[in-house]
């Protein structure tokens, strides 16, 4: 029960059925081993968002390395009657053998830019679509959403409180990781602390306060357990009465050579209450006790509070960040762009794609990112190429500590124009290289012709 | 890799830190073994929603039965320096030993009604909060969201296509299960097919079509593999041209004694295209080939299409159902309501709770649910009591096939007033029993006094 098996679901069957039925056809038609390149990107950013932060690559690479079909999986597939022996044999010996090029985690990314490109035998590249999308989508979504709180909090402490309402425990882990990558300081998720080395943090619940004969008794009991690490939740009955009781405990702690870390406000008009609570703490001489705020917050609440001058030193940000409440998905897709060296596109209404493997070049003016150029992989571009080879022959060739990705995310955010970082962001320019426009027109011409 | 370990993450550390620090204090204060009752409920329904369907109970019970802290978990906790030997010993022998009363899965549930009540030693009831909330939240959310598509589709085929953008693979499984419980017919998620016995379904991707020299060649190849089970994706280049090519393949299949199952539209004005495609199929004599629609659909798109008379026989519903896009969380909470037989409440602004363990009675007029009564567990009520004991002494006493819960969900939906089932729903009445109102006032009086 303990040893963190199942950090991800481990069955090759965690896949859309059509990946397998198409595979059956590819094997039957002897088309399974052609070399295909798929490009993973999103078409648009949610309203107000200026950028996304690429994330989820580590999980995606681990998925590719570990993907297998076990005998139980194969027995189930055989029972469905949908698959012939040739395809089932292909699955029995399945090892992903392809190459992956990707944006390192923490890289700022914009619509139409590949987060990742997979080149592999068609049947392999197709089967991995579902979960490569899934892994990259969730963490990119949450890192990007969390980055907005990081921008808004402007250096104040941020703690991930999302686990109770994330879409599963696995999502809770991904949220802790992705929000830390984006700049959060700590998480309430203890397993994420153990797995990823993220600092864990927490305060106390209303039930704790209610389970004592009075609020003061509850505060004293918690301070006995954590004399230098207590943040007392003061809103169970009345936030300012609670703050005064916290001051009593702070005095008792100080008398014994300890110190109260702070108080937590979790309901009511937190901006206003924070000012009143701050005044109570300050008057009593506890200027360094923090006012910590929580309770259904997102980046806009944080920005509004700080704009109103609320003296809040830290924020617990939960559900709205963890499910990316106002934008719970990105329109990520995984599109075939090349088959045996032939560029491919799709013309569907409103869903057309750009052909061929690609590169993204970031052009800087000084330290500041000025614009990106999206072009064919084979082209030469000005600026810094952002897609790197991260896997070859099915083995990851890129690995880095989470802290490295977190540092990159910070540098990337800081390099963006202010307008792009704002909560109501200005768009960032992504130019199409002339060579890509020509290629698109040529391929479209051929498809129509 | 195959044998479906880790259908859920298995570590006791998948928990909010404060559950453990509160536990440390409870053990230190000798308060850990007092009997506590917590009630899990939501305060409001998302805009437009008339009801929720309770779900996730099976996973929650399994979590409670299996929760353990392994030696690696304990070693990590010890390293944090936050915990004493007494508490770590309590965790080492941790087995959830409590009682759970709950709404069976598929029961229609309304704001303030407990989905579940846990009675256990305080330290146990507190530690399980995070993941019991998480398990019940996700499936209740998705089952309720999916039920809206079921209402809108009014008997047409519904297939879960969400896996690629659910918040993790575990969420994808939960979505397949919860949407099936709510009335979906099939899922693209093969592992959900294997684990839950749900019918799997799928069509083909644009990449498949693009990987052949022409659309007709692609359709023919797929029909060779699945001569009686092909739904051909017709929108890669031009939806109506594609439909005409599908008709060619339908003729070839018919000549060989087989039949085309249908076509899929995935872009453009699907309502309008479906009429044109239907006409092409009908003219050619393929009245029983289905027009299947997909592409970013939710219940409102389905309702709008059917209202416009679109001849669509089935819908693939993905991301917007799977992340519950317009309402990606419910405000579920888990609140202390009783401690050693003493009813407890919380008075926080806008977050007050009702004291004591509860029961919900559903009062019917004929087959139709008329209103619910929320009262103290110990009271006698008119109508059908909905909360049942599902676990005692840490062992589940309630288990049922998914199909039973699915049948219940259908009966429950059908028993609700039409207005409550509508996509812009009228509210359903939940009355507070007089005895609960009296209890609340007494306990509030005491807390203030």
Description:
- The structure is a homodimer.
- Among the domains of chain A are: about 30-140 and about 330-355 and about 385-430, nicotinate phosphoribosyltransferase; about 200-315, Aldolase class I (TIM Barrel).
- In chain A, about 40% of the residues lie in helices and about 20% in strands.
- Chain A contains 17 helices and 20 strands.
- The first copy, chain A, has helices spanning about 15-30, 55-65, 70-80, 85-90, 120-125, 130-155, 170-180, 190-195, 205-210, 215-225, 240-255, 270-285, 300-305, 320, 400-415, 420, 435-449; strands spanning about 35-40, 50-55, 100, 110, 115-120, 155-160, 185, 200, 230-235, 260-265, 290-295, 315, 330-340, 340-345, 360-365, 370-375, 385, 390, 395, 430.
- In chain A, the strands form four sheets. Chain A has a seven-stranded antiparallel β-sheet.
- In chain A, helix 6 crosses helix 7.
- The longest helix of chain A is centred in the N-terminal third of the chain and has 25 residues, at about 130-155.
- The first copy, chain A, is elongated.
- Residues about 1-5 of chain A have low confidence and may be disordered.
Please give a handful of descriptors for the protein shown.
homodimer; alpha/beta; nicotinate phosphoribosyltransferase; TIM Barrel
**Major sheet details of chain A:** 7 strands, antiparallel
pLDDT averaged over residues of chain A: 95
Please report the number of helical segments of chain A: 17
Q: Biggest chain pair contact, residues each? A: A-B, 119 and 119 residues
| CATH superfamily heading of the domain at 29-142 and 330-354 and 386-428 in chain A | nicotinate phosphoribosyltransferase
Adjacency order of strands in the biggest sheet of chain A: 14-13-1-5-3-18-19
**Percent in helix of chain A:** 40-55%
Based on CA atoms alone, the radius of gyration of chain A comes out at 26 Å
What name is given to the CATH topology of the domain at 29-142 and 330-354 and 386-428 in chain A? Answer: nicotinate phosphoribosyltransferase
């Amino acid at each position: 029960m303990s040893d963190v098996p199942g950090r991800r679901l481990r069955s090759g069957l965690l896949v859309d059925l059509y990946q397998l039925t198409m595979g059956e056809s590819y094997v039957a038609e002897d088309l399974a081993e052609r070399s295909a390149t798929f490009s993973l990107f999103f078409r648009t950013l949610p309203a107000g968002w200026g950028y996304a932060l690429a994330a989820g690559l580590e999980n995606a690479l681990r998925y590719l390395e570990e993907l297998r079909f076990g005998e139980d999986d194969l027995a189930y597939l055989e029972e469905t009657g949908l698959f012939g022996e040739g395809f089932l044999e292909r699955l029995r010996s399945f090892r992903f053998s392809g190459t992956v090029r990707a944006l390192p985690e923490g890289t700022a990314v914009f619509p139409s830019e590949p987060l990742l490109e997979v080149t592999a035998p068609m049947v392999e590249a197709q089967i991995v679509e579902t979960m490569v999308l899934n892994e990259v989508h969730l963490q990119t979504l949450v890192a990007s959403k969390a980055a907005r709180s990081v921008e808004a909090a402007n250096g104040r402490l941020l703690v991930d409180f999302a686990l109770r309402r994330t879409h599963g425990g696995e999502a809770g882990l991904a949220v802790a990781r992705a929000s830390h990558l984006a700049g959060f300081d700590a998480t309430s998720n203890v397993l994420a602390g153990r797995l990823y080395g993220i600092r864990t943090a927490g305060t106390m619940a209303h039930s704790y306060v209610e389970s004592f004969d009075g609020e003061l008794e509850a505060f004293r009991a918690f301070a006995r357990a954590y004399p230098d690490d207590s943040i007392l939740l003061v809103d169970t009955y009345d936030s300012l009465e609670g703050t005064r009781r916290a001051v009593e405990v702070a005095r008792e702690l100080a008398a014994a050579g300890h110190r109260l870390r702070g108080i937590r406000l979790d309901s009511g008009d937190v901006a206003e209450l924070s000012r009143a609570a701050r005044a109570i703490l300050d008057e009593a001489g506890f200027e360094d006790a923090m006012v910590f705020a929580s309770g259904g917050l997102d980046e806009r609440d944080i920005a509004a509070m700080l704009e109103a001058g609320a003296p809040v030193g830290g924020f617990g940000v939960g559900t709205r960040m963890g499910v990316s409440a106002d934008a719970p998905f990105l329109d990520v897709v995984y599109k075939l762009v090349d088959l045996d060296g032939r560029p491919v596109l799709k013309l569907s209404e409103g869903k057309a794609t750009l052909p061929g493997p690609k590169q993204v070049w970031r052009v800087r003016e000084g330290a500041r990112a000025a614009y990106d150029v999206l072009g064919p992989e084979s082209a030469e571009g000005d600026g810094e190429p952002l897609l790197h080879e991260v896997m070859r022959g099915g083995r990851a060739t890129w690995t880095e500590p989470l802290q490295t990705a977190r540092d990159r995310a910070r540098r990337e955010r800081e390099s963006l124009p202010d307008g792009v970082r704002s909560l109501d962001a200005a768009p960032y320019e992504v130019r199409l290289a002339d060579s890509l426009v020509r290629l698109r027109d040529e391929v479209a011409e051929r498809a129509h012709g």
